[in-house]
Amino acid sequence: MKRTITGIGETVLDVIFRNDVPQAAVPGGSTFNAMISLGRTAGVRFPDVALRMLSEVGDDHVADIVVSFMKGNNVDPSLITRRKGSQSHISLAFLDSENNASYEFYKDHAHTLLDPSSVKDTSFNRDDLVLFGSYFAVNPAIRENTRHLLELAHRSGAILYYDINFRKAHIGEIPVILPSIEENCRLSDFVRGSSEDFLYLWGTSDPEQVYREYISPLCPNFICTCGPEPLHIFSGNGMHLTFDVQKIQTVSTIGAGDNFNAGFLYGLLSRERAKEDCDKLSEDDWRDLVRVASRFSGNVCRSIYNYVEGGPEALGL
User: Fold this and answer.
1) 168 pLDDT tier (thresholds 50, 70, 90)
2) What is d(CA 154, CA 68) in angstroms, rounded to the nearest whole number?
C-alpha cells in the first residue's frame, strides 16, 4: 500500500535551557518533531512512503536550518512557505528539576502565511496519513487555508490525526478558536490531547467527561494523556481502555507527546491499517499502537532533542 504522510503545523527554532543556561538550539514545532521522527523511522523502513511537511518559515538563516534539517531526515520541504522579509518563530524552553519544560514564544501569528498555490496543489489519497494540531491548526489568520486542506484530506479518505495541544497563552482566544477546534475534531479519525489541554478549554481534566460531553459527538476515537498517570483510550466501538505509562529516567520531556503521535502513526502504517479499520480497532490493536507510540515517546525523553535518536532498530521496531 503506497501512502503519503503529511504533517500540517508550525516550525520554530527551540532554544533549550537548563538552570538558565542554553543547552541546545534545534528545529522544532509539535507536528515538525513528529515528522522528523517519522522520517528517521518510517522513512527508512518504508522507502515507498512519502513524507512531507506543510508549514511556513521566515526569510532568514533559521529558515535555512529548518529546511536543511527536513531534507536530511527524509521529509520533503517543498510545501514550506517562506515569508519574504520576515523572521522565523523562536521558542525558549526552560527545563525544571523534573525535566519538564515551560515555554516562552516569540512568534508573529498575525502575519502567518501559507502560499495559496501550495495549498491549492496539495492532494491526498485514500488511506494517506495526515497529522496536524496546535495553534497552527486554528489560527484565524490562515484558517481558511487549513480548513480547505483538512476538508480535502477528509473527502479523499485520508486518516486524520488531530493533536489539540492547546497552550495556556491562548486562553483569551478560546471563544474565537473553539469552533475551529470542534471542526477539526469532526474531520478527524483520531483526536489526542492532554488532561491539561482540556482543563484550559473546558474546565475539566476528567477524560471520561471530556469524551462524553465534548469529543464523542465529533470524533469516535479519543486518546487522553495525563503526564506520568495512565493514559485513556475511548474508541468508536464503545471501549474505554487505560494503559500505564512506563516510568523512565528523563533527560527532557520536550517532544514526548509529539513523538507519541509519531509512534501511533508508525503503528498504523506498519500494521497497514486503512481508513475503514479506524472505528473497529480491537483492544489488542489499541494495546499494540500504544506500545509503539510509547517507545517513540520514551526514546525522545532520554535525550535533550525533540525527536527519536536512531532508526527503527534503535526503537526495537
Assistant:
1) confident
2) 30
Report residue 33's pLDDT band, with 50, 70 and 90 as the boundaries: very high
Question: Cell numbers 481508513 correspond to what residue?
Answer: 275
Environment class of residue 44 by beta-carbon count within 10 Å: exposed (0-12), middle (13-18) or buried (19+)?
middle
**Residue 124 Cα distances to 32, 52, 74, 154, 277, angstroms:** 19, 12, 19, 9, 18
- Residues 63-108 pLDDT 10s: 999 999 999 999 999 999 888 888 888 989 898 888 887 888 887 6
Q: Where are the beta strands (DSSP E) in the chain?
A: 4-8, 12-18, 21-28, 50-57, 80-82, 89-95, 101-106, 129-133, 159-163, 190-194, 222-226, 229-234, 240-243
- What global pTM score does this model have? 0.94
- With contact defined as beta carbons under 8 Å apart, do 146 and 120 qualify? no
Residue 75 to residues 94, 216, 238, 248, Cα–Cα distance (Å): 28, 33, 36, 29
Report which residue type is found at 122: T
DSSP code of residue 158: P
Phi and psi at residue 164, to the nearest 5°: -60, -50
User: Would strands 101-106 and 12-18 be described as parallel, antiparallel, or unpaired?
Assistant: unpaired
pLDDT given at position 1: 58
CA dist 61 and 66 (Å) reads 9
Task: Express each pLDDT in 102-148 by its tens digit.
Answer: 888 887 665 667 766 667 678 999 999 999 999 999 999 899 999 99
